[in-house]
Amino acid sequence: MNQREDAVQEGMNPYESGDEGISIAELFLIFRKRFKWFLVGLVLIVGLAAGYLKLATPQYESQVSVLVEAIQRSSSFESLLDVSSSSAKIATEVELITSRSNINLALASLDLSQYHNSDGADYRDKNVLGNVRERVVVSTVKDTNIVKIAVTDQSPAFARDFANALASTYDNLLTGIAKNSKTAQREFIEAQIPLNDMTLSRASDALGDFRENSDIIQLSDKSSNLIEQISYYTLRLEPLRLQLNEAEVFIKSYNDSLLAAGFTGILSGEELREDSVIASKLEEFSAWKTELSMYDSLTRPGGVATGLDSSSRTYVINSAISQVTKDLLNRINVLTRGYATEANTQAIVGALTTEVDIEVLQKRAEVFSEELSQLPVLERRLSELQRDVQIYEAIGLKLREMLEEVKLSEAAITGNVTVVDAAILPIKPVRPNKLLI
């Protein structure tokens, strides 16, 4: 017997003998010497595994596959004419599957008394049902709009039915969010039309009464020129204010829907404006818009003739404005990536840039309003009354045009989710894995 075998027989470390390595024979010698401990360990581990398998509750998994349409595409009238095959981003839509709102809607659609746990208690008890959100796994198929919703539960029937219910209520949830935003816009515009009609009627009556009770019938050339300048900017301002209000209504309705679905961290307009990049871009946008408004006053009817060719410069300005708008859109996409859709980010950019537009035009209109205030009282009053009538007539036409557009968009909203493969009743549990254990 060599030195390593002597060491093994004496219970010593065979490597202390000075030789390196250990042979197969020496391994068997060690195993034989400590066989009872190997046997005890094996019996103990097998016993623990058998005990776990006996006590563990089998878990069954059922999966439903759905095709998801992005909210902004399903709620856009233009999307009906879009034949592009590129898939839209559906990150926000996927997050909504496991939202508190969708989970609760799916549970409410089921008769929970039909499902029982291993102790026989039905799922109407929240303690028995447990946190179902933790048992829902959502995955997407790469480069497609196909989403898989897998539900795991000790009741195979509940796993199947709850997966199918999630897909059904998910369709209603997405369609509701898209429809609510457009409905809010439509209701806002519908409420503005009668108000504008009433104001127009009062303005027309006031103009008629003034002409009957005063000696002034027609404005002087200077007054006509000033009122034309002021009307030009005012007629541009009022549709912008309507556009801003419409965008704010859309954004608020969309954000409220996300908050109701359990989303957090939604940025307000003020928080977005405080971002250094956005603030810088808005200042740049304002500078370009101010310069553009000056060139517009030179080229429009009634503008001051200077003999300068401003076409090349306005092209440069418009190109710069377009680039700044794209930069704003990219930045807002980064800040709102976790919850906003394309339609929502575009509405935010529209609201921010429209506010700047309004501010620029107001400053230009104030210059002519100040000059108008120096005219005789009667002439100034007549010019103001004529301007009011022109403005409210233009607003009425704009409101009716906007209403028809929103009605088309609202009517174009369809279901967002199509079930590709419905969930089926699972036969074998996915956990525990008896063979592996």
Instruction: Calculate Rg over CA atoms.
Output: 36 Å
Instruction: Please work out how many helical segments DSSP would assign.
Output: 14
Q: Which whole number gives the mean pLDDT?
A: 77
Task: Estimate the helix proportion, in percent.
Answer: 55-70%
Structure class: alpha+beta
Number of strands: 4
Strand line-up of the largest beta sheet: 2-3-1-4
Indicate the multimeric state: single chain
SSE sequence, one letter per element = HHHEHHHHEEHHHHHHHE
Cα-to-Cα separation, first versus last residue: 41 Å
Task: Work out the strand percent.
Answer: 5-15%
Instruction: Report the principal-axis shape.
Output: elongated
Characterize the biggest β-sheet: 4 strands, antiparallel
Can you tell me the residue ranges where pLDDT is under 50 for at least 5 consecutive residues?
73-88, 301-308
Give keywords.
4-stranded antiparallel β-sheet; 6% strand
Structure, described:
The chain has 437 residues and is of the alpha+beta class. α8 (156-213) packs antiparallel against α14 (377-411), α9 (221-260) packs parallel to α14 and α11 (276-299) packs antiparallel against α12 (311-335). The radius of gyration is 36 Å and the shape is elongated. The protein has helices at residues 3-9, 24-33, 35-55, 71-74, 91-95, 100-108, 126-129, 156-213, 221-260, 269-273, 276-299, 311-335, 342-372, 377-411, and strands spanning 60-68, 136-140, 146-153, 417-421. β2 and β3 form a beta hairpin. 64% of the residues lie in helices and 6% in strands. It contains 14 helices and four strands. A four-stranded antiparallel β-sheet has the order 2-3-1-4, with helices on one face.
